[in-house]
Amino acid sequence: MRAMKMLLLAGAAMLGIGAAPAPPAMDRAAIATARFGNDAPWYRDRIPYFESADPKIDAVYYYRWQLYRAHQRDLGADGYISTEFLDDVDWQRHPYASLNDATGFHLGEGRWLNDRRFADDYINFMYASGGNDRHFTDHMADSVWGRYLVDGDRDGAVRHLPVMNHIYRLWDDKFDFDKGLYFVEPLLDATEYTVSSIDASGGRDGFRGGDAFRPSVNSYMVANARAIAKMATLTGDTAMAAAYTTRADALQQRVLADLWSEKLTHFIDRHQSRKNEFVSYWQPIRNRELVGYLPWMFDIVPDEAKYAAAWAHLLDPASLAGKAGMRTVEASYEYYMRQYRYLGKDPECQWNGPIWPYQTTQVLHAMANLLDHRTHTGPVTRSAYMRLLRQYAALHYQGSRLDLEEDYHPETGQPIVGLDRSHHYFHSGFNDLILTGLVGIRPRADDVLEVNPLLPDAADPQSLDWFRVQDVPYHGHKIAVTWDADGNHYRRGKGLAIEVDGREVARRDTLGRVEIPLPRANTPAIARPINRAVQLVRGQFPIASASSNTDPENVHDAIDGRTWFFPELPNGWSSAPSPAEQYYAIDLGKSVELARAELAFFADGKGFAAPAAYRVQGWIDGRWQDLATPTSRPIANGVTTLHWPARATSKVRLLFTQPRGKATRLVEFKLFGE
Predict the structure, then answer these.
(1) Second label for 241, Cα 20 to 30 Å away, from 97, 178, 492, 575?
(2) Beta strands in 495-561 (DSSP E)
(3) Which of 358, 347, 484 is nearest to 426 (CA)?
(4) Other C-beta atoms within 10 Å of 77: how many?
């Protein structure tokens, strides 16, 4: 009844009844410059803009877009992918640096960009180019459906349906037909050193082994099956839709019947190992883990009080509630926080207690679902949700510096692993939480915009007096949501207001659900200029050379398709500080028509600075000829774009003059034909 009332209110607002003037739009250019400096042009027309009464949440929101941008690797003709680690790790898919375990987070964040290329390229890579190699468990099909709920692009959603079907069936190798459940080794669930793997080793280790029927993989497979069924329905394939609906329903029932522990009031693992001296087949694990909340992330759990009682453990300091964040296993576990694995003297990743942004994100999504559309929420309140969201935001800070790492100590909030690879780690989400939880945009498949901010009432210490988000893409429109508790911040009236394409269409005085009929519009076309200067495989064209510091890896790093400016992890070719005149050249291996270059330079106010002068030349008619001779200096910590009349050339070089005593770090050198 409440939803119907809000629907009628929204319909009246769309006719102009009682609509108040829309708040003034945020200045995108000014915000982008303030948040991203010289790199602002990349963000200006791409991201949704957000502001609130909590400056720390705001700062983390914009940092997370910076993190997303840094992890977009340009593969040239294969488009962009999102990476988990900024630099290479041994277990990635070579030479692309892709890993399938974090794809759900990458697509969850990327679906909110106004530039749809990054998510679209990534989906194409994962399904058309073999990127989903099943190295780890994932909920990728569900994430593709989640993207469709935002952009409404039917063709983009169903394009890879046959491959999704094929990959889903490949998981039969991890399906126990006797029990009707999937099992997985925790390491291949991207969660090594869990209760099941440690106990299966008799407490001696836990990196490998410990196959278990887990709430994670089974929740993913329910979600993927439902997504495939919905996409099959879009194509008219009723047989596939029915088959996957049946499969999802059967698996859901097995999760509820067999992975719910009445003793622990929690969803838990059961051991799958048939020949093990320490554990037995089908034996339930002995402690609660954070992974037990994943069934709520995918709306698998019935709206019943007995299940909602599980959330008490998340808020209990004796169980899963650490002082600084969510423990991955409760503190009473025999091997809680025992460090088993090291890289030299440095501790390595484990899931026997540390906070992981990865699973923290999943649990906050699960909690948002509980609060948004469940009657039985147990001890969970909107105040608790906002407190935990703020607690998660705080993990992004190291002092005053923003740098999200792999895992954290649950009592101190300090990074545990702290290796070079750990800086600015992207196996989690945040902005998706802000947009779907705090702001409350609940993406749907039908022609309705639904908004339900998960904020507590104004008297609560976790409340926000005001917020605004704008330039949010939704079903081909641009939407904005504004909350002003007393009307004093924006001075356009108190309450919650919704705008579509710059026009206010709904308003209510209090927090609550608003549903607005919104016929979808055409989604914007995707532009795909191709970078011709990406070297994926060392030793293959294009091949770079340089005037100094010619270590092959150093030279390669300026054409590896990666662009970021974080000082904690150097990226690009770094020259020697002398002589002043230097060059960086790219041999394309064949004649290519080029008309544009993008140059990214890093500066730190210390040893590195952008060149004082520079020009770009091409090898044409047997000699070097100028293509672009700019008169102003290139920018630092951003991208300088140069244009020239299209010319065919097989080699390009950058000639530049360094400021006295300074070296140059060329982060990335890109070449385009248009």
Answers:
(1) 178
(2) 495-500, 503-508, 514-517, 543-546
(3) 358
(4) 9
Q: What is the pLDDT of residues 623-632, one digit of tens each?
A: 999 999 999 9
Question: Nearest CA to 313 among 285, 288, 284, 286?
Answer: 288
95 cis-preceded (ω within 30 degrees of 0): yes
Rounded-to-integer distance, Cα 122 and Cα 119, Å: 5
Tell me how far apart the alpha carbons of residues 122 and 124 are, in angstroms, rounded to a whole number. 5
Give the predicted TM-score (pTM) of the model.
Answer: 0.97
> Closest Cα partner for 227 from 280, 282, 304, 148?
148
Rounded Cα distance, 93 and 134, in Å: 11
Output the pLDDT for position 473: 98
Pair 65, 518: CB distance under 8 Å:
no
Nearest C-alpha neighbor of 545 from the set 651, 413, 661, 433: 651
Token code pair at residue 58: 């705001």
- Which residue bears the tokens 């009246």? 12
Encode 163-200: b = buried (16+ Cβ within 10 Å), e = exposed.
ebbebbeebeebbbeeebbbbbbbbbbbbbbbbbbbbb
Plot region of 589 (φ>0 → left; ψ -120 to 50 → alpha; else → beta): left
Residues 627 and 639: their CA atoms lie apart, in Å, by 18
Buried b (16+ CB within 10 A) or exposed e, 280-313: eeebbbbbbbbbbbbbbbbbbbeeeeebbebbbb
Take residue 294 and report the two structure tokens written for it. Answer: 């994943």
Q: Return d(Cα 165, Cα 176) in angstroms, integer.
A: 19
For residues 156 and 120, the answer to whether their CB atoms sit within 8 Å is yes
Between the CA of residue 340 and those of 201, 349, 374, 661, what are the distances in Å? 12, 9, 40, 46
CA atoms within 13 A on the CB side of 127: 23
Digit-coded pLDDT (tens) for 358-413: 999 999 999 999 999 999 999 999 999 999 999 999 999 999 999 999 999 999 99
